[in-house]
Structures are given as structure tokens and as C-alpha cells.
Amino acid sequence: MIDYDGEARGYDASRGGEARAAATAEAVERLLPVGTSALVDVACGTGIVTRRLGRHGRTVLGVDRSRGMVALASPRVPHGVVLGDATRLPIKSAEVDAVVLIWLLHLLDDVAPVLAEGARVLRAGGVLVTTVNKDEAAFNAESDVAAMTASMRHKHAAGASDRFERVVTLAADHGLRMSGDTTFAGIGQGWSPRQWREQITEGRISWSRKASPAQVAKLCRGLSSLPNQDVLRPDPIYRLIALSS
């Protein structure tokens, strides 16, 4: 698991900054019901997206388990950020119109408790908005990195916790049904071969963590052989779905 406390201050710069936050928030807005007035942003990170979702007179609450992230988010969303766990939200049942989960489910071994908790706090007619298939998103545009990593990804990513089919099936157990679907660009996150190699060797990519050390070493040698080692590849296109109560 990434040390989010340690990475908090450099997190936005490494994830596309305001441009990426704007694209994310705009995509979330497309899936929110008309008249959404109360929203909780779970795993809100630095609050860079949460702040945008709080416009239009909407009440927002950002929740994150990282103290470092909460410290940065609090000035962006005054009196609207708390330290908390996605499986035990500090919110009454049937209290909010929307629950937002951006880039969270892929980090978890078991997404069911988080989906159950999201369903618990939603009012009737509310919506849970979440990213799915996160680790595959970086490769939905053709590139030499995508081709180089294809074999390992397909072998080890099939059981990803945020697979679309898995999320939809588990959400249905809690009365949530698919109601919307959109995409957005992960601006500034189209990593170069060198950056991919660093991410993989540091154990930050879930599908590569399932491979053997020998397989990882072989893949990294291949990535190091690609031309233009520091040239960014195409930005990922993330998928965002809405599940309504």
C-alpha cells in the first residue's frame, strides 16, 4: 500500500494537479442526480476534487484515513473534512444524496464492505459514483508500454478488486443498480517507460505485485530497452460508473 501520509505534499503534482482534478469533478457531475445537495467524498485525498464538488451550494464531506491527506484537504474544504474509514463512515444512515469513490476500490482486497457502507448512508434515489478498472485504464490507448506489459497485466489483473463486473454484482447485493457511465482523462498521468519501471519496482502497481520477482525483473528490463525513456505516453482514460439506490 502506498504511504499516503508521506506522499501527501507531492501527491497533486504527481497526479496532474488542477487540470486532472477539473476533469475528474466534471465527470462526477455528469453522473450526479439533479438536485444533489449532500455528498460525501470517500478517500478524498488532498481535497482537490472535493472542493470542486462543493460548488453550487452543495454540502460536501471529505473522508480520508490518511492524516497527511486530511491536513492538506482541510483548508480546501473548511469544516468539511474528517479522518475516517470507508467501512465506518461518520454519517447517519440515509443521510446523503451521493457517495463518491475515486481511485479507492482498486487498492482494497475486499470492496464489499465499502459498497455496503456507501449504500447505508445513501438516501432513496441517491447515487454511488466510483471508478472501476483503474489499473487497466493506463493502457486503453495504444503505446509501446501497453504492448510491453500486456501479457503480465492480462495474467494478473483479472482478479482486480475494482473490476467492473465484480463491483456491479456486489453493489446489487445492497440494492444498488447501474444507472450511468462516463469517462475522463487522467491528465498528466501518462507515464514514461522510466516512470513505469519505477512504479513497478516500488510495488505500486497491483497487477505487478502478483508476479514473481523474476517476471518483474524481466518486464523492467524490457521497459528499460524502449526508446524515449522520459517521454510521456498517452494519458489514461478512466471509467466512472453510477450505481443508484
Written description of the protein model:
It is a single chain. This protein is of the alpha/beta class and 245 residues long. The protein has one domain: Vaccinia Virus protein VP39 (Rossmann fold), CATH 3.40.50. It is 42% helix and 20% strand. The protein has helices spanning 4-14, 17-31, 50-53, 67-76, 112-121, 134-137, 144-156, 164-172, 193-201, 206-209, 213-225; strands spanning 38-42, 59-64, 81-83, 96-101, 122-132, 177-185, 237-244. Strands 3-2-1-4-5-7-6 form a seven-stranded mixed beta sheet. Helix 7 (144-156) runs antiparallel to helix 11 (213-225). It is globular and about 55 Å long. The model has no long low-confidence stretch (mean pLDDT 91).
